[in-house]
Amino acid sequence: MANNILKGKRGIIFGALDSKSIAWKVAQHAHAEGAKFVLTNAPIALRMGTINELAEETGSKVIPADATSMEDLKVLYEGAMEELGGKIDFVLHSIGMSVNVRKGKAYYEQNHDWTMKGYDVSALSFHKTMQAAWELDALSEWGSVVGLSYIAAQRVFHTYNDMADNKAMLESIARSFGYHYGIRRNVRVNTISQSPTDTTAGSGVAGFDGFYRFANDLSPLGNATSDECADYCISMFSDYTRKVTMQNLFHDGGFSFTGMSETAMATYLKVMEDEKEVSDKK
């Protein structure tokens, strides 16, 4: 049930590609909570997705921007402030891409030109997004910037590849820029480390179904859905979290702090029993 906790707030939402995107859900929830915002994505992503449907649903304008381009980002902020009638209160950075993952290159045999491209899109764009706002003084006092991350920044997931490095850098940027933006304008900067989520990008990682099942079995509350992640983002944009900054916030049903669950152990023991039964028959 909506409570208008974002009434009067203005935002920019990066990364809504289609209805499976977390950014798409965030836009829907922000609209329900009374916010006004612009939607943005890279021009090539806009051609691939269905963002205009979301724009119509939420009464929002779409402003194309390459998040790796400072020039594009400044045009985006200036256009958003003109469209929305003032400085920006919240920003969602929901961007990630690895050419190595797409091309099936293992971590130990990366094409480093592709690595740098992925780093620029997935992590450095977060810094550029805030630096562009900083240079234009585009964010309101007590504004909120949120980037979406994943626990592979802290733990090894064998096919997550260089995206793990990108997420680790994303979280570091949040801490460092969060300090400076906090001093300057009381702006808070955080990352949300979300459960494996069935999005267009997430499902492109090899073994995603296994990641999803393992995390769901291990988490005492189960995996967080994209709608639940959207709710969490809304809380981070709201005035209820004004003193939360420079944090990586795990939104994963408890996965990040669970060593072993009854469900996961039962599955593992069942596999062992089946192996023993097969071995005894030989």
Number of domains: 1
| Beta strand % | 5-15%
* Spatial arrangement of strands, main beta sheet: 3-2-1-4-5-6-7
CATH top level class name: Alpha Beta
The number of helical runs is: 10
CATH superfamily: NAD(P)-binding Rossmann-like Domain
The count of DSSP E runs of length 2 or more, i.e. the number of strands, is 7
Kindly state the percentage of residues in helix: 40-55%
Helix-strand topology string: EHEHHEHEHHEHEHHEH
SSE topology:
Layout: E1 10-14, H1 22-32, E2 36-40, H2 43-48, H3 51-58, E3 61-62, H4 70-84, E4 88-93, H5 99-102, H6 112-136, E5 139-149, H7 163-185, E6 188-194, H8 208-218, H9 226-237, E7 248-251, H10 262-281
Parallel strand pairs: 1-2, 1-4, 2-3, 4-5, 5-6, 6-7
Helix pairs in contact: 1-3, 1-9, 4-6, 6-7
Walkthrough of the structure:
With 282 residues, the protein is α/β, with parallel strands linked by helices. The protein has a single domain (10-281), classed as Rossmann fold (3-Layer(aba) Sandwich). It is built from ten helices and seven strands. Strands 3-2-1-4-5-6-7 form a seven-stranded parallel sheet, with helices on both faces. Helix 6 (112-136) runs parallel beside helix 7 (163-185). The model has no long low-confidence stretch (mean pLDDT 93).
Outline of this structure?
The chain has 282 residues and is an alpha/beta fold. The protein is 48% helix and 14% strand. It has one domain: Rossmann fold.
Q: Main traits of this protein?
A:
282 residues, globular, alpha/beta, Rossmann fold
